[in-house]
Design brief:
- The protein is mainly alpha-helical.
- It is 54% helix and 0% strand.
Length: 142
Amino acid sequence: TPAIRVPSFQMFIRRGLPRGAAFDDHAARLPLRKHFYAKMRDGGFSEQDQLEAREKLRQSIDRMEAALADGRPWLCGDMFTLADISIMPSIVRLEDLGMADLWADRPMATAWYQRLRARPAFALAYAAPARDVFGYAPEPPC
């Protein structure tokens, strides 16, 4: 839905959070991910944080490539499983943000994503209008 596919997730989250010392107090009370939220204070994520995140995403795609290297269609073999489902939203979101270059040179991951997009449920789960981010909308699946 448009509510969860806003142009900038970081700005969406920051909009509802307190500012200044109140933000620090809020972040300190969070039991999980408090350091993550604290990084959004003031200027948002640093360029270094963004580079590190991109590297971690690329490492995940590299692991996918290795898992698919034996020619199997899905991450755990011949069956579509929770392994595929769990990485799917991240890969879709990366494409939505115009970051498909992260797997463009990974033929097995690319083929996996093409198979994923060809599944009938994909078009239902990821309707094209909800995927329009920054004016970029990927081509609808086959």
